[in-house]
Amino acid sequence: MMAFLTPLKRIPTPKGEVRHGIRVDDAGFVGFGEAYISEIFSEETKGWKRHRLMTMNLIVLKGTVSFSIYNENTQECEKFLISAEKEQLYSRLTVPPGLWMAFRGEGNENSLVLNIASHPHDPNEAENRGIDDFGKFLP
Amino acid sequence: MMAFLTPLKRIPTPKGEVRHGIRVDDAGFVGFGEAYISEIFSEETKGWKRHRLMTMNLIVLKGTVSFSIYNENTQECEKFLISAEKEQLYSRLTVPPGLWMAFRGEGNENSLVLNIASHPHDPNEAENRGIDDFGKFLP
Asked: Which of the 8 DSSP states describes residue A87?
């Protein structure tokens, strides 16, 4: 299975927007285990990480983030750019288990990424590799 | 049932923090229906709203927000201040159904509030009142 983007609505009101995230009946939702937030500083890259069980649903809350999703079996890489700062780039990225991910903070300030994860955090469920291990696929 | 705060951890790393949100086994989690984000502009107040079914789990992602939770049956009001900008004020606010809520954007910039809601958005499940209807309990 591949990663995929779902554009999300932002509904303006005079006191501030309502921004969609994910509903239980949305494409890509496979269960709820944990919601947590990852900050990424400008021009820094976190990765590579691969989950054995967890489906990630990633929403950029602040700033702009580029993501690389790498399938080690097929050696295919997909890249995605998501931003909270530009309405046309406000999307949810669904990443099924079994794929490597790295992500980079773009722009001048820190960025925040919400993960609505299908499983709670468990270090035994994830593998890590060095940032340069799949260097040509970095975001 | 009353609303309650749960302090949340923030784990620093050289590339940016990991901030806790909510896990399936946490106090206050009663099911997942939808995750959405409410923006509130500085010095604006949204409210009052009361949910018939939804338990809200509220996490401030950016800025500082004050919340008033009003129980119309007992005429008791609880107030809470949550901030993403001060680590000691980074908490999750659990609001069970049946309570009125209003919230106000503090500080000079817009604030963002994540709701991990037990039920998906449904206008038939919520009631609204004018901001001044419980004016003395406003945040």
From this structure: G
How many other C-beta atoms are found inside a 10 Å radius of the C-beta of residue B54?
23
pTM: 0.96
Q: Cα–Cα distance between B68 and B129 in angstroms, integer?
A: 14
**Closest Cα partner for A65 from A35, A49, A48, A85?**
A85
Q: Is the Cβ pair A34, B24 closer than 8 Å?
A: yes
- Tokens 């990663």 sit on residue: A3
pLDDT in tens, chain A (139 residues): 799 999 999 999 999 999 999 999 999 999 999 999 999 999 999 999 999 999 999 999 999 999 999 999 999 999 999 999 998 999 999 999 999 999 999 989 999 999 999 999 999 999 999 999 999 999 9
Name the residue of chain A whose CA is nearest to B9's CA: A36
Best of A8, A9, A11, A15 to mutate (most B CBs within 10 Å, chain B): A15
Task: Please give the radius of gyration of chain B, using alpha carbons only, rounded to the nearest integer.
Answer: 15
B58: closest CA among B77, B78, B75, B83? B83
Whether the complex's predicted ipTM is more than 0.85 is answered with: yes
